[in-house]
Amino acid sequence: MLAMLLAEQGADVIKIERPAGDHLRGTPAFHVFNRSKRAVTLDLESHEARERLRGLVLDADVLLYDDSTTGTALAGALEREARTANPRLIVGHLSAYGSKGRWAHLPPDEGLVQAIAGAQSAQWRHEPRPVYINIPVSGYAQAIVGAGAVAAALYARLRSGRGDRFELSAVAALFQFETTAWVKAPNIMRLAGLTSPLGPVPTYRLFKTSDDWVFVGALTPAFWTKLALAAGLDDALVDERFAGAPMAIADADDRRELARRLEEAFATKISEEWLRILEHADVPRSLVLTREQWAQHEQLRHNGMVVEIDDPLLGHTRQMGVPVRLRNAPGYIRGPAPVASGVAPRWNERGTGSRPETRIGSHGTTPGADYPLAGIRVLDLGTFIAGASCSMMLADYGADVIKIEGPEGDAWRGSGLGFMGSNRNKRGLCIDLTNPEGREAFLEMVARSDVVLDNLRPGIMDRLGIGYASLRTRNPGIVHCSVTAYGPTGPCAHLPGFDPLMQAQGGIMRAQGDPAGDPVYLQIAVCDFASALTAAYGVIAALISRERTGVGDRVETCLANAACTVQAGEFLMYDGAAPPPPGGRDLAGRTASYRIYATSDGAVMVACVSPEHRDALAAALALADNAPLAERWDGPLACELERIFASRTTREWTDTLLAHGVPAAPCIAVADLFDDEHHLANDLWWDTEDPRWGPLRQTGALIKWQALRQALVRRAPQLGEHSIEVLHEFGFDDDRVSRLLDDGVILQR
């Protein structure tokens, strides 16, 4: 999928397969992940085939491989020689667990990655046991984060002329999707674990109506007020028990009581009626749809996210479109997934556009030319996860990111550690953009910046006088990135939106939940992070394009698009398609031999995907026959195995299973993640200090570069912490800064 994302922004991608074919060939996902590419079959045991591959690599820009049989053979045969002969080559190794630690040599597997990364233990559930996530979320995270890493390396190469090598593990990529959750401070406990799978906040969750389900997204005090009035709960607004609503009700019983009162209200009307009521009240809301229903949504089709492709094997298909759009250089789908070919490929002719004088290194105060985006200035108007995480990714790549907030501050600050997890490496400027002087100061900063980022509703930037047209007038080279809920135009563009609204509409909650029962809200904010990190990839692509053309661009993506991106392989419709694996209440896995089992002190993920693995499991458990191991995850045999696994500890079971050749790993609890030996060995944590929260541990340098590196230089800023410092660097003199302070246009903490 990573290579597909590159191909659909114009890269010429050649897929290398072994004679037996890619292990995904024959599965629906293959036909999505490999579209827009060319393919060649090479037997790497053959001298002739290795020479053909060598010829391709010596003239390539990027070489990608993973821990599959083909990838390992390719890397061992070629990587060192290729990088010596082609110093401009960028090599990306997509490992499963990282190169160090106890689990480094496990076979690649989505369920094992989820277990080791803590995602299964963090998922909200009814019973006290980890839950299997029914979409390959770590694989999607790895593809999106990896695309940004490749783009960042290509951009850095424009400055240095040299390539580089990086490793990105699926565990690290899943950490990137948990950056707002994986933050630890003394005596601060985050919402995790046994929180209801309907939602963690009484006003921000699933509700059963008289005929179906709706999701309500009242995450701010303003939205809570609107919801209470719309639901006829006016008295709740003055009830002292709910004074901290929506997110800061301290007592668990009070939270449950508010949820109960809302449940009773929603049960009195059908879903469609509630949609009308909540739309009139301007409360974020959505129906809970299937993927097929989502594919019919008028906004999704308006966005070009449902495309029809005639596949040579599947016939007529509907697939997801290109998730991020650059207005001046829009991506496109070149064609269906290729049929494997033994014909020696040649690279397509490279573009020959003239390149203007370099702009790289013209801005910025963050030291370190070995940061991929060193010298890039970003003005960050983003908030919550989707906006803040995009700019934080750019900051982690070394861009100088200025977080701009109004006097009231970012509403996301109320999340505490969540804010810290998505705003590190930034400096804080508090400025009132509704004030003409503040607006003019901002536009003067735009003239000396490279990127402006926002995730405001469409139209707000224009009403403030800082829309794309105004930005481009001040700086023709500016890259403006806008992350919205539904897209910049279309029938739903004006609506507010949050991650779980797209989980609900996009079919994700139905896919995770019981087909005949309750939907399930995923703890991982998959749509927020997919849109944020896809946007970061788009920004870097636009910066690369700017080096060729000398002009900036507008980058657009949205949460609605992301709901397709994080289930791209499942978001595929064609005649004869097999139904996807069903979800379930507290879903434990797929079969009796591929699922989570509780042990005497925790849980273990068993990942048997072949008859040989099932034979090994039968031997490890002293079973007479392995045939029933392919039955349902909640069938009779699985129930019997639950009793067996409960008799010993997680460590005892993992040692026993691995000794027998059974792929298995512990479901690491959230509380144990921060001191886990495997994660420490792979250097996945970063320690810092915050004046309010004290010592913090949060996700660290998740992409392992060889020459380049990620920036880890500062904690998240306080409101207006660097206002004076930033304005001075942008050329504002002391008198003007003092006047802005005195007039309340800026705030300095």
Protein described:
By secondary structure, this protein is of the alpha/beta class. Among the domains are: 204-283, formyl-coa transferase, domain 3; 589-671, formyl-coa transferase, domain 3 (2-Layer Sandwich), CATH 3.30.1540. The protein has an 8-stranded mixed β-sheet, sandwiched between helices. Helix 21 packs across helix 22 (559-565).
End-to-end Cα distance, whole Å, is: 44 Å
- The radius of gyration over CA amounts to 26 Å
* Number of distinct beta strands: 27
CATH superfamily of the domain at 589-671: formyl-coa transferase, domain 3
Structural class: alpha/beta
CATH class annotation of the domain at 589-671: Alpha Beta
**What share of the residues lie within helices?**
25-40%
Overall pLDDT level:
93
Q: Give the strand order of the largest sheet, numbering strands 1, 2, ... along the chain.
A: 12-18-17-16-13-14-15-27
In short:
By secondary structure, the chain is α/β, with parallel strands linked by helices. 36% of the residues lie in helices and 16% in strands. Among the domains are: 204-283, formyl-coa transferase, domain 3 (2-Layer Sandwich); 589-671, formyl-coa transferase, domain 3, CATH 3.30.1540.10.
